[in-house]
Fold this protein.
Amino acid sequence: MLMTLIRATASALLVIGMATASVAQVVPPSAGGAARVQLPVDALMQDAAEYAQRFGVPFDEAMRRMRAQGDSVPATDALRETFKDRWAGIAIEHLPNYRIVVLLTGTDPVVEQSVMAGGMTVPIVFRTGAAATREAVLAAITRYQAKIRDSLPHPPGLGVDQRTGELVVMTASADADLDRNGELRARIAAMTGVPVRIDIVDRPPVDMAQDQVAPVPTLIPAPVDSGAIEGGARVIGTVDGKRYACTTGFVVSDGVRNGVVTAAHCPDTLSYVGKRFSDGGREEWPLAFVGQWGWGYQDVQVNVATAPDVSYAPLFYADTAKTLARPVATWRYRTSTRAGDFVCHRGERTGYSCAVIAMVDFAPAGDLCGGACLPTWVAVEGPTCKAGDSGAPVFEGSTALGLVKGGTYRRDGTCLFYYYMSTDYLPQGWTLLHR
């Protein structure tokens, strides 16, 4: 679990908030030819293979569990409504057995239930005795975030751990002495009136990294029949003479224009880098800046191709080598997302990887959202994220989930967790292009 991991490695953490600029080691696109579009079963099998490796279960069991993850969402949405007055959290547990755990306030027991999902019976276990509802913890963050930030030399990250029902305060290691004998935890708990846990990290995230990417191969205008703009691809831009790389998220439309989204902290004017040719050149489309939304709960911008004959596809690359693309079939709201969900992302720096959601209600440390971030970001466990993944699509199968914003890293450069903006918060008037 993320918080356990944080406590175990606190002395070796290096936190970098934004995953924007990429230095040379960018995953190359496939050499020539269009990516193969996956069928839903292909996408499921690819993610299930990652799941099987992560949890050490047979492939067929992983397939059932991945199906169950998506199929069980309506049931857990209904449970949230049924127990809304007692709801403290929900999490998917994978070991020793696959099950859904619901955390409730109060002491009245609830009989264990189950749901048929993905061709398997998924147990639903209820744990009672939580000290505060999820809404109460979120309200405490909203009300006291400024006071908590002002009370510490380094503004901490804040979140709701739905496994335990605690308000998690992620403080910089430089402030660790403030919690000697639990003093900081007790003070914040008394202030907020909800259970609090202090997790120590090395230092809070910083804004856009200033790494300059290596020179790219010669870019040539893309021929009309060469393909289409997709998610999960490389975009580059220049700010103050330095070149940055980010990742496209998903293709969007406002009903009149089609465009592509990435993170708002990426350069405004971008070029979309397509397939690579045998002579070392790459096709490229200039992308004009439409707008950006980067305050509080958003980190997203829209760009559109300037050439009139460029096409768009409701697809995103779904493998490291960019040989596979997935159609966007649907999307999932953040309220339906659960701690423990197994999700994937395809970043331009790191390629394709999958991991478990740690927190659904997370406010990154520092001032990465034009000031304090709201607790609307979704944190996903590492170990794979690096600068250059900003804007990358986060997905489950063919379900779009969000866009990567930033990450936290250990001193050795490995990723502790990354966080993404849910597709709930796409700019008003723009929707996902889907099949």
